[in-house]
Amino acid sequence: MAEHIDFGKQGEEIAVNYLIEKGYEILERNWRNRHKEIDIIAKDGKELVIVEVKTRKSNFYGEPDLAVNKQKQRLLIYAANAYLFQKKMDIDTRFDIISIVVNDGTPIIDHIEDAFLP
C-alpha cells in the first residue's frame, strides 16, 4: 500500500480511538457508496456524526481541515444521505472534521464539531 494511504489509515485509527475515549459509539469505518466514502460514522448520544479525517505530517501548507472544500463537503452530504436511506434512519446528523498533524510521532488532534452544514 502507498505510504500516504498507510499514513491516512493511521490517522483514522487515531481518530477512532479519540472518539471512543470521548464516549462516541463507532458504527462504521470507511463506509462506501459508489464513489463516495465516509471515513467514520459514529453516534454521539442521539446524534449521528459523519466524520472526515485529515492527517498530515506538518501544517506547513495549512491546517489539514482546509482540505475539506465545498466539493468534498457536497460528496460527504450525498454519502450521508445514502447511508441514512440505506439504513432507514431518521436521526439528527452533523458533520465533523478531525484534523491530525503528526509531528515527531506525536499526534495533535483538532476536532471540529459541526464543521459545516448540509
Entry summary:
By secondary structure, this protein is of the alpha+beta class. It contains two helices and five strands; from the N terminus they run αβββαββ. It has helices at residues 3-21, 70-86, and strands at 25-33, 36-44, 47-56, 93-103, 106-116.
How is this structure best described in words?
There is one protein chain. The protein has two helices and five strands. The protein has one domain (3-92): Trna Endonuclease, Chain: A, domain 1 (3-Layer(aba) Sandwich), CATH 3.40.1350. It is globular and about 45 Å long. The longest helix has 19 residues, at 3-21. The model has no long low-confidence stretch (mean pLDDT 92). A five-stranded mixed β-sheet has the order 1-2-3-4-5. The chain is α+β, with helices and mostly antiparallel strands and 118 residues long. Helix content is 31%, strand content 42%.
